Amino acid sequence: MKRFNCLIVVLVSAWFFASSSSAVMLDISKPLKAIKIDSKVGSQTANLYAIPLTIKREGNREEDGRLLVVTVPAKKLYWWRYEIGGYPENSTFPADQFLHACKPYADENALLIFCITSKWFLIGRSSRVYQSDSDLGALVKVEFDKESSNYRTGLDYFDKKINLREILEPSFFAEPGNAKAVQIRFGDIGKENDQYEITLIGAKQNPEDETPMTMKLKFTPDFTFSGSSKMDIKSP
Question: In angstroms, rounded to a whole number, what is the distance separating the alpha carbons of residues 204 and 177?
């Protein structure tokens, strides 16, 4: 659970007051990780980058952090957020950590970022477009310096926050006899008849079950929750 707790800290508690910052420029030819993501028109590629960053807090105290950047090159869409903490050189750690709790989706004209904790289902929507690969790093840095005061917590990077405890039954979150919540995982993400369909994988309902409970959640285009259904997943 240590890694999961760390993810929650990154998502929920990354608040800061940046008076100034300095960053290493982004080499867009070398993503930390390139992944296939779902979209309405089929699979597309998303690239994940991290820009090392040093910010100055009040009292001239320096803090090492990073700007995590997600792009969809085919659409020139991008999304970013600040994360506290450096990372080992030549490591994919920032991308691995992000993908452990988050999943991008390429919509028609927006990059959607879905993230999940033991309580929150978070949706970020970005229609930001970059024109030149070589300018992306500088563009993100300028936006960070301009907008950082708007982000007091990690939750502020998301446009919609849904309390999963209010829409799913308690047995989805923990196995019988175990008080600790399991890590919820993403399944497929899609769009059908103008509704988003997002599959979440939770806890096993009985110790002898081979597969955990799997729920399909449905949302309207503005991500108002419209219903859920339990999926019967048979083990191979």
Answer: 11
Is 173:130 a contact under the CB 8 Å cutoff?
no
Rounded distance, CA 187 to CA 168, Å? 16
Q: What is the pTM of this model?
A: 0.84
5-31 pLDDT, tens digit each: 344 344 443 444 444 555 556 777 788
Q: What is the pLDDT of residues 95-122, one digit of tens each?
A: 999 999 999 999 988 999 999 988 899 9
User: How far apart are alpha carbons 76 and 61 in whole angstroms?
Assistant: 36
Cα 81 vs. chain centroid, distance in angstroms?
A: 9
pLDDT tens per residue, range 161-199 = 999 999 999 889 988 777 677 889 999 999 988 899 999
What's the rounded Cα separation, in Å, for the pair 159 and 184?
20
Q: What is the chain's length?
A: 236
CA–CA gap between residue 46 and residue 114 (Å, rounded): 14
CB distance 198 to 114 below 8 Å: yes
Distances in whole angstroms, Cα of residue 161 to Cα of each of 34, 122, 141, 230: 27, 5, 26, 22
DSSP string, 22-64: EEPPP-TTS-SEEEEEEETTS-EEEEEEEEEEEEE-GGG-EEE
Q: Are strands 62-72 and 185-192 parallel, antiparallel or unpaired?
A: unpaired
15, containing H or E segment: none
